[in-house]
Amino acid sequence: MENTATTRTLTRARDNRVLGGVCAGIARRYGWKRRNVRLAFILSCVLPGPQFLLYVALWLVLPEEA
Predict the structure, then answer these.
(1) Domain boundaries, the chain
(2) Which of 12, 20, 28, 47 would be a feasible disulfide site paired with 59, CB 3.0-4.6 Å?
(3) Phage shock protein PspC N-terminal domain spans which residues (predicted)?
């Protein structure tokens, strides 16, 4: 039996980007609203941890969508 579902890969968005398109790409991949992903990222930055470094790493590693 063949899987007919389309596979969505995680890429940086070309449109609707604010900085690097990482949050918009995550939102597109999982079917979430861009605004909610951006808000979650901004709110997570007040917590201790490497959130900003993770964002920069994803910006460098994720390919831009074609």
Answers:
(1) 22-61
(2) 20
(3) 8-65
Six-digit token pair at 20?
A: 């690097």
Per 3-state DSSP, the chain is made up of helix, strand and coil in percentages (nearest 5) of 45, 5, 50
Contacts of 58 (CB under 8 A, 6+ apart): 12, 20, 22
Rounded to whole angstroms, the Cα distance separating 27 from 43 reads 16
- Residue for token digits 């995680």? 10
Report the candidate in 66, 61, 63, 65 with the shortest Cα–Cα distance to residue 13: 65
- Give the type of residue at 48: P
What's this model's pTM, rounded to 2 decimal places?
0.77
Total residues found in the chain within this entry: 66
